[in-house]
Fold this sequence. Notes:
The chain has 262 residues and is mostly helical. It is 74% helix and 2% strand.
Amino acid sequence: xxxxxxxxxxxxxxxxxxxxxxxxxxxxxxxxxxxxxxxxxxxxxxxxxxxxxxxxxxxxxxxxxxxxxxxxxxxxxxxxxxxxxxxxxxxxxxxxxxxxxxxxxxxxxxxxxxxxxxxxxxxxxxxxxxxxxxxxxxxxxxxxxxxxxxxxxxxxxxxxxxxxxxxxxxxxxxxxxxxxxxxxxxxxxxxxxxxxxxxxxxxxxxxxxxxxxxxxxxxxxxxxxxxxxxxxxxxxxxxxxxxxxxxxxxxxxxxxxxxxxx
Length: 262
């Protein structure tokens, strides 16, 4: 055997799609689903938030193609899915802490394929949260909107959670593993209040509203509720797109810094 052939045999072969495959996706998803705390966090917390609002007065007032209860339903589904997706993305912090990320960097797995896998797992977990909230909403019987609006709102809400999956990955790369959710939990709650997810923006003072329009939750909330409200300001779309790109860029930047250490 020649020296050239030996060198070729020792080279790492780059797998198709950078190493992304359904087996890897299945392993990551099953790992999340085996965690009981994750299941409780994904299914119970969002549903409990929906139930905590109860059937308050004024829920039957009309909003777009539905009523106030439907408006709140979509908002709670977005919050639950955003929290779940961000928590899933932030798992990279724990993986870095235990050395799993370092082990993956020794394989031919492309970092982009790794992030894509995390994003898809976050989508799956976010979908569970959205379904849980909508099931509770149907059981309550307060929310009213056409079926096609209901389905469209669920789909749009799901894709909106990609923003917070990217945020979770970004945070996971810049803070220690045990601190990721300590930052994301209160942080997302604050962003939800400021972004008009829990309280309509017209009930805030003008100064607070001016700040709210710049927060990450405002744009995605408007996009998620657009199938119901039939209203979508152009600046809300810009807000949603810009924050999504910023979080993606931040995650990619921190990931490149992290992989450069090997």
